[in-house]
Design brief:
Keywords: FAD, Flavoprotein. This protein is an alpha+beta fold. Helices cover 31% and strands 28% of the residues. The chain has 13 helices and 28 strands. The relative contact order is 0.13. The mean pLDDT is 94. The chain binds flavin-adenine dinucleotide.
Amino acid sequence: MDADVVVVGAGPTGLMLAIELRLAGVRPLVLERHPHRRDTPKAGGLGGQILELLRYRGLLERFQVACPGPVPAPRFPFGGVHLDFTHLADPPMHALPLPQQLLERLLDERAAELGVEIRRGNEVTGVSQDDAAVTVDVRGPDGPYRVSARHLVGCDGARSRVRDRAGIPFPGVTYPEVNRLAQVTLPDTVTVLDNGDLDVPGFGTVHAGFTRTDRGLFGLGSSPGARSVSLYTIEDESVEYDDDVPMTLNELQDSVHRVLGAHLPLAGSTRLSRFTFKARQAERYRAGRIMVAGDAAHLFPATGVALNAGLLDAVNLAWKLAADVHGWAPPGLLDTYHAERHLAGARTMLHTRAQVALRRGHDAAAEALREVFSELLLDEQPLRRMGALVAGTDIRYPMPGSGLHPLAGTFAPDLTLHTDRGVTGVAELLHPARPVLLDLAGRPDLRETAREWERRVDVHTAKTDDRPADVLLIRPDAHIAWAAAVDEPAETAAPALREALSGWFGTP
Ligand SMILES: Cc1cc2nc3c(=O)[nH]c(=O)nc-3n(C[C@H](O)[C@H](O)[C@H](O)COP(=O)(O)OP(=O)(O)OC[C@H]3O[C@@H](n4cnc5c(N)ncnc54)[C@H](O)[C@@H]3O)c2cc1C
């Protein structure tokens, strides 16, 4: 085999997956068709649960050096209205204003530190599999060649060839709405009024803010007298755009012309981006030895959530693939990737589809819907609930077994831990991305049960205020696999722990 796992695509999902695979001790090979890191502007930042996860890996601190944050997100757009968290002391949603190009550079650097092999300028042209391996056809700078691996993951974006070759259907809809966003310089021939409004011959005065015409929406962000302004257009079009094909100044100028029905000359730009909305989700995230993750697995019809979902896919999948490569994966472990992440994707799809309904209508009924929705969001409980939904923190993965502790399946809280060696937190215990058994109540009986798994599961003893459980069994992706209730007797806890350890981490 040329690699344990071939990762197709060095976008954020592929890079994150490769990092996590290396941490789990396997050899990924990343194949990326572009010869260089891309410079098309895409996401302006990261938000939601992934920020916690990055902190649990010690990566968030590094990202914060590159850009300040994370910040409790004060407001988050939600389908034409806003989730306004400004009056909450502990908002349910955090965001880091890290542009995607910078995110990719930082992930790339981390992958290089860990010794990940990334072959840029190498396009995957074909994929096949049998019971033992995956065979990959690649077009490289020196011609075509083949590689084989135990598994392959398509992190190859919206138009995933891997998904197609694996025969995974990608049902859903493409919305006609095309959004174009730019920071542009206006030439001297355009009259900028003292208050920042524009005088556009053939249209008249365009005010700062949004102007709706019968052909679409035009947005202007300006400050008095400044010739550098931000422009935004939204139109319905029948053309399907590829997000990787950059927008040009001419394309924006034509769009402005169609929306305003008048020509607005533009001299230059510092940022140009276009995005469209699709609601599609792969029917299966796994087909034998081939898996899909990130945009290859899901496309959501609203902004601000795709990276969160894609990077969390990668973290969920990596340790399971590693378990298979190392030969200790219990039966069905790889299938839990689909079960858990498809569920999380469906939840994101639910609220982003709701955002389409909220945002698209412009008649009195649609305005009334937005008003009622905004009114509900003035109350703390629904606001928190929506925040958790958007952040993806309300996910509880389905766990096998009955009579489970309420924490089973949830993201492990970052408890403050008092140990013999000082104060630490759950986040630090998860830096190595290994399973953790955390004894919070001095339970030698349960630590003894876990001893047989000591090469796979790190055991820690600590004290915490108001312990939520006696023992937590935490997976590398920070989700709680099992928990012993406070003062749970050994007769029930020990066999249940043994079952959970074998169910997640194989026969000892
Ligand atoms: C303008 C814009 C704004 C956005 N804003 C946000 C935002 O604010 N928040 C947010 O969360 N998301 C945002 N997104 C979405 C976000 O950019 C994507 O979700 C993200 O890029 C998906 O990452 P990925 O790694 O799954 O796929 P991609 O980033 O698409 O990466 C796929 C990689 O695979 C490579 N590849 C494809 N086919 C092959 C092949 N056959 N062989 C080898 N390599 C291949 C591609 O070259 C590419 O590098 C935005 C997108 C756009 C376009």
